[in-house]
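Posting this for the archive.
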Amino acid sequence: MTDNTMKQPPFDEILIREYLLDNPDFFSRYPELLIAMRIPHAERGAVSLVERQQESLRQRVAQLEEEITALLSMASRNEQIYMFNSALSMQMLKCEDMGELRQVLSSGLKEQFQFSHVRLITVHDIDSALSHIWRKRLDSGYYFGRLTIEESKRLFGSEVGSVALSRLSNECGQVIFAIASSDPMHFHPDMDHLLLSQLKQLLDHQLSKI
């Protein structure tokens, strides 16, 4: 008889598992097994089935509490962003010229999100560097992520961590709405652009009137 044959359990473990799943009242009929059965534990050596179940439930409750806390924190953050966006939109609608619009937009976003730069940049065909960014980075209308040092300096005058770029509508001319963060990981290609889209729509509306 080989060692493998000797190590095989006398019963089919899969059948036992399926039987217990199909008969959840099994341990109700044999409650003494709950106390008698011992399960290996990494720290305590061995524990009863009841103790193991209680520990699993405590761990699950702790996990659920963490998930709820994270969801509440996210909801609170989303509410703050919504309130900020509403207030900023009202201020932008009151602007009467481009200079005032730039100031309101820049100061609001920098104060709320600690962005390093917020700019509205007009692209001229004779400016090859900006034209290249317009074609390469904004072919889909938006760009989130890192720039080359040359691109950063052309848009913001200095090297930045990461950026969010948006091209405004054709009615506004070739205008780039550009935001920069000193954090290289703040803006990334997979992030949601809902807030930027809302601000872009408002800028499209205001710039066509100013």
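The chain has two domains: 1-94, 96-207. Strands lie at 38-41, 45-48, 117-122, 142-145, 162-167, 175-181.
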